[in-house]
Specification:
It is a single chain. The chain is an alpha/beta fold. The chain has a single domain, classed as Alpha-Beta Barrel (TIM Barrel), CATH 3.20.20.370. A hairpin with a 2-residue loop joins strand 8 and strand 9. Helix 4 packs parallel to helix 5. It is globular, with a radius of gyration of 17 Å. The mean pLDDT is about 95.
Length: about 280
């Protein structure tokens, strides 16, 4: 096992809420879809308990509203609860007022359920980009201390290429201070490659993910790994979407849990707040 401690994060949302399936499922359909996030999240909780591993669960407000007991189970198991917004809409498609209202609503809901402060945030589909940098000001104004929404890559849906690759303290446009834990990338000749988890973990061969994440640790830095509960659920309903969306969402679902178990055995993991404390970024 590597000696550097990394951050393990779970984005608690259901399969029908992801951007890749939005072309087939509207938000109006959500309440009628087969609900699978509780069972899948409970399975992840058992897996992490089996490996004595703590993580950060970025919980969608919509899910917390529907399943407050699930949020309590996550909290009671000793994991960090952070906000994933409320409705899983892309930030740059929202107005600042809508974003503020949803962010405040989700934070308040999670804090009411757990009785503990919620200080971390992750945007749906990493949609804090140069176009929506204003969201960082709102996060600071609403009492968040740290964020993990910036992906320093080029992508058709997200990304802020050229931004720092490692955890750091940033200054927002209005001058607020916020700690950012960007999604992990691998620097190769001529390209910055996303390797933080999720679809990339399912797309790349396992050996490449292990090698790339190990290289990050060998450079002396922690990485942040993310996964969704639906990614360990190969039996989820299938939808007729574009070839690209189908590939992004369904690729290697049947291999993901096995790979996750290998990764947890190979690397040292904990919650985001623990890693940021180790790096003394949360101390003022």
């Amino acid at each position: 096992m590597e000696t550097i401690t990394n951050a393990l994060t779970i984005d608690v949302e259901d399969y029908f809420q992801v951007a890749a399936l939005a072309e087939a499922i509207s938000r109006d359909d959500w309440s009628s879809m087969e609900y699978r996030v509780e069972r899948n999240t409970d399975h992840l909780l058992s897996l992490l308990d089996e490996h004595n591993t703590r993580g950060t669960f970025f919980t969608l407000g919509w899910v917390a509203d529907k399943s407050p007991d699930l949020v309590r189970r996550i909290h009671r198991a000793g994991h960090e609860i952070a906000s994933h917004g409320y409705s899983h809409q892309l930030v740059y498609n929202q107005t600042p007022d809508t974003f503020r209202e949803e962010t405040r609503r989700s934070k308040g809901l999670l804090e009411e359920i757990t009785g503990a402060p919620v200080t971390g945030y992750r945007a749906a589909s990493y949609s804090i980009t140069n176009e929506s940098r204003w969201a960082l000001d709102i996060l600071a104004e609403e009492g968040f201390v740290w964020d993990s929404s910036i992906f320093p890559v080029r992508h058709d849906r997200y990304g802020m290429p050229g931004t720092p690759r490692w955890p750091h303290r940033l200054e927002t446009d209005k001058g607020y201070s916020l700690v950012e834990f960007p999604l992990t990338t691998l620097k190769l000749p001529g390209v910055t490659l996303p390797i933080a988890g999720g679809g990339y973990f399912r797309l790349f061969p396992y050996w490449f993910s292990q090698w790339g994440l190990g290289r990050v640790n060998r450079e002396g830095e922690p990485f942040i790994f993310y996964l969704h509960p639906w990614e360990i659920d190969p039996g989820q309903p299938r939808f007729d979407v574009s070839a690209l969306s189908r590939f992004r969402h369904y690729n290697n679902l049947d291999k993901c849990e096995y790979r996750l178990r290998r990764l947890i055995k190979r690397f040292r993991f904990t919650a985001v707040e623990d890693v940021l404390n180790e790096k003394q970024l949360l101390t003022t």
